[in-house]
Amino acid sequence: MTPARYSIFSLARNALGYHRNWPRAWRSPEPRPSYDVAIVGGGGHGLATAYYLAREHGIHNVAVLEKGWLGGGNTGRNTTIIRSNYLWDESAHLYEKSLKLYEGLSRELNFNIMLSQRGVLNLAHNRHDLKELSRRVRAIRLNGIDSEILDPEGVKAEVPILNTSPSPRYPILGASLQRRGGIARHDAVAWGFARAADARGVDIVQNCEVTGIDVAGGRVTGLETTRGRIAAKKIGLVAAGHSSVLAAMAGLRLPIESHTLQAMVSEPIKPVLHSVVMSNAVHVYVSQSDKGELVIGAGMDGYNSYSQRGSFRIVEAQIGALVELFPIFSRLRMLRQWGGIVDVCPDASPIVGKTPVEGLYINCGWGTGGFKATPGSGWAFAHTIAQDRPHALNAPFALERFASGRLIDEHGAAAVAH
Ligand code: FAD
Ligand code: PYC
Fold first, then answer.
1. Is the C-alpha dihedral spanning 376, 379, 385, 389 positive or negative?
2. Phi, psi torsion values for 236, nearest 5 degrees
3. Strands 174-178 and 120-124
4. Residue in 77, 78, 227 to alter for ligand 1 test, most ligand atoms within 8 A of Cβ
5. Please, which residues have CB within 8 angstroms of residue 261's CB and are 6 or more apart in sequence?
């Protein structure tokens, strides 16, 4: 039987069989009484950390404890944009490592993460934007990362539906473009890491909320959870918007603020937008998913919150900006809107490293931009936990930088108002 006939046959058989007898992608074990490493948070970063602990460091006695369902936090709520065009060397190295891992991830995990390197454009609407983008592009290229400046004709050629009429509200003077940037299916990234970690012996425990961290003599000994006490020699906190809540359980105060970041999708339409378009000045970004929906994001809500909803003011500004840039979208209907709780550091860069409590490690502060970092963050964090010291890639992102003042200011890195 040819592969094509075989796959059509198996597709029909599975469709008519109501998915009965499909193997589970990962087990659903009861938590064991103790682990070498417990990871708190079953988002992409926590799952990637567990995978690389097993894959790169031979540490298999690992649990990922998730209070809800895998990827139910920001991993399953983001607008899926991936790129590595960051200004500062430290960030460029870390995000580029991540993009390189993404480029081989479907093969590595044997799971199609639907990576689509369709290019990410950042629009310039005035001379200041253009100067700033040119500076960024030069800095990014010095780090060997692809990035280029497009003139207005180049932008029009990439995105013909953009409003380049003679007197638009937001004139387009040019854009930066990272051609290797694009999107990937966020759920698939979580599921792929989960399945591969599970296959290497990692216990993934959902519906297991961590309610306390046990510390004795300055070192962690275990976790209190809604499914009982779990002893652990090492603990990695990877809880995004709830990082401060968890760190406080070990007596630590983090320089993190939690805010809501919203997004929405439109009804599906035929393919009209082939790149990712972001506008830093008007705070909107948009791409078209493989299903045809437009995936649209905006700036975050200004106030602190643990709510996954957000305010109408942001939605209004987001849609206003979108239809100014793309008048063709003005009659589209929106399907759904949601929010995620993003964890923002004062310099808009993450914290990945050790803490003053022995055996306790932290990975947070990815704020509005951590989906693109998922594999790289997990890779570097696994190294830090396994070796009890940071890798060169994440050493600059230590918690101590807020005492030493060696901040890595990436507020301008995305089209997201902070
Ligand atoms: P999460 O996926 O949030 O995982 C943390 C997990 O910890 C959650 O599942 C949570 O339930 C769990 N948890 C919390 N407390 C506990 C507890 N006490 N016990 C057990 N578990 C607990 N980034 C990009 O790069 N590109 C984008 O286009 C992009 N767009 C975004 C759009 C929106 C609307 C949002 C909200 C974010 C966006 N981001 C984007 C940011 C990105 O989604 C995050 O930085 C990234 O997904 C964080 O992954 P994570 O695994 O650290 O966190
Ligand atoms: O960091 O690229 C990004 C991003 C896009 C949308 C939200 N964050």
1. negative
2. -115, 125
3. antiparallel
4. 78
5. 74, 297, 298, 299, 300, 301, 310, 339, 340, 341, 342, 368, 416
Flag residues of the chain having pLDDT under 50: 1-3
Say whether both 176 and 191 belong to one domain: no
Chain segment 98-157, per-residue pLDDT in tens: 999 999 999 999 999 999 999 999 999 999 999 999 999 999 999 999 999 999 999 999
Question: What is the pLDDT, as a whole number, of residue 16?
Answer: 80
For residues 315 and 301, is the Cβ–Cβ distance under 8 A?
A: no
Distance (Å) from CA 371 to ligand 2 centroid: 8
Q: Are residues 167 and 262 in the same domain?
A: yes
Please report, for residues 81, 114, 144, 323, 410, the alpha-carbon distance to residue 121 in angstroms, rounded to integers and kept in the order given: 11, 20, 18, 17, 18
Atom of ligand 2 nearest to the CA of 120: 2
**Spatial contact of 375 and 53, defined as CB atoms under 8 Å apart:** no
User: Which residue among 40, 74, 377 is best mutated to probe the pocket of ligand 1, counting the most ligand atoms within 8 A of its Cβ?
Assistant: 74
Angle at 205 between CA 231 and CA 215, to 5 degrees: 25
User: What's the CA-to-centroid distance between 282 and ligand 2, angstroms?
Assistant: 14
Residue 246 and residue 356 share a domain = yes
Based on the number of CB atoms within 10 Å of its own CB, is 333 exposed (0-12), middle (13-18) or buried (19 or more)?
exposed
Please tell me the distance between residue 178's alpha carbon and the centre of ligand 2 in angstroms: 14
SS3 readout for 89-108: HHHHHHHHHHHHHHHCHHHH
What is the rounded distance in angstroms from the CA atom of residue 107 to the CA atom of residue 104? 6
On whether both 56 and 74 belong to a single domain, the answer is: yes
pTM for the complete prediction? Answer: 0.96
> Taking Cα atoms as reference points, which of 378, 30, 26, 397 lies closest to residue 225?
30
- The alpha carbons of the chain give a radius of gyration, in whole angstroms, of 22
Strand, coil or helix: 411: coil
Residues 175 and 268 in one domain: yes
Residue 286: domain span: 118-181+258-344
DSSP secondary structure of 7-31: HHHHHHHHHHTTTTTPPPSS--PPP
Tell whether 357 and 238 lie within a shared domain.
yes
Q: Which two tokens stand for residue 111?
A: 């799971």
- Asked whether 110 and 220 are in contact (CB, 8 A), the reply is no
In this prediction, residue 264 carries a pLDDT of 97
Residue where a domain stops, chosen among 344, 365, 398: 344
